[in-house]
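Bug #77: duplicate submission created two jobs. Keeping one. Sequence:
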Amino acid sequence: MKFVAFERAKQGTGASRRLRITGKVPGIVYGGTTAPALIELDHNALWFALKKEAFHATILDMELAGKESKVLLRDVQYHPYKPQVTHVDFQRVDANTKLTMKVPLHFSGEAESQAVKLDACLVNHIVNEVEVSCLPADLPEFIAVDLSGLKKGSSLHVNDLTLPKGVKVVTHGKVNPVIVSVVAIAAEEEAPAAAAPAADAKAPAGKDAKAAPAKDAKAAAPAKK
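Kept job's structure:
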């Protein structure tokens, strides 16, 4: 994806506030052998670009002062309650240097799996993205994950992912983390429907049965003169 940035001459809280009032977003570009550069971007153009998944997970072409360079989106700051981007960070990319980046997972085939279709299990997505290490040219936009082979009691791990050439998942010391797990739905115990009504119907009958003899005995007693 390509976007246009403009050089920013002033920095500081006041200067950034004035930029935001005029519909601009302050930002910075760092990394590589060049000094960090202060930039500004059109807010509306950036806002709609941020809604696209590729803007977060692929190498971007940034045009700045008539020159193009490869960058990665590294950080975005938003206003606490307004739909407004307040600051954005980009990192320059060196074609010969490996980078680490979080890449989204695209799941498919869940409804066709035996776990869901036959055993009525729930598929729990533990993570929706993974961090990868690779050269910029090998960075994938996403990693496809086929869930059609899931069965009851099974799970899918990092080692089960089909990764593009040159791409390695960074697990930060965790051994083969879980990506997806299958959870069986516990059957609810059904209470006997007839038991409660029968008990309720029996209780009043017993009470009346005890009261009836007393009433009859009182009626049969001779009246006192």
